[in-house]
Amino acid sequence: MLRMNSDTRDFWEERCQMALLLAKRHAASLKEKETLVIQVHDKSSIQDMIRYFSSSLFSVQLEENECVSTLTVVRESDS
């Protein structure tokens, strides 16, 4: 049985490319079915992250409110 772990990262202070770079770095260490929760307020950063994670081995879910966007990234099966 796989255990789902969650790691939350706050990129509130980061902008565009730095936020994406940090998200990629943290996601690279995820194992199958592990979750990374990313909080960002910069809309272009979120769009870059969605584009990147949607085209790789991850599933993504976005929740938005007035102040912050929360992106949940789950590492899917490698096969």
**Fraction in beta strands:** 25-35%
pLDDT < 50 stretches = none
What is the count of DSSP helices, taking H or I runs of 4+ residues? 2
Span of the ends, CA to CA: 17 Å
Largest sheet: 4 strands, mixed
Task: Walk me through what this model shows.
By secondary structure, the protein is α+β, with helices and mostly antiparallel strands. It has two helices and four strands; from the N terminus they run E-H-E-H-E-E. Strands 1-2-4-3 form a four-stranded mixed beta sheet, covered by helices on one side. The longest helix has 13 residues, at 16-28.
List keywords for this structure.
single chain; 79 residues; alpha+beta; four-stranded mixed beta sheet; 32% helix; 32% strand; globular
Would you spell out the secondary-structure blueprint of this structure?
Elements: E1 6-10, H1 16-28, E2 35-40, H2 43-54, E3 58-64, E4 69-75
Parallel strand pairs: 1-2
Antiparallel strand pairs: 2-4, 3-4
Could you write a compact summary of the structure shown?
Helices cover 32% and strands 32% of the residues. It is α+β, with helices and mostly antiparallel strands.
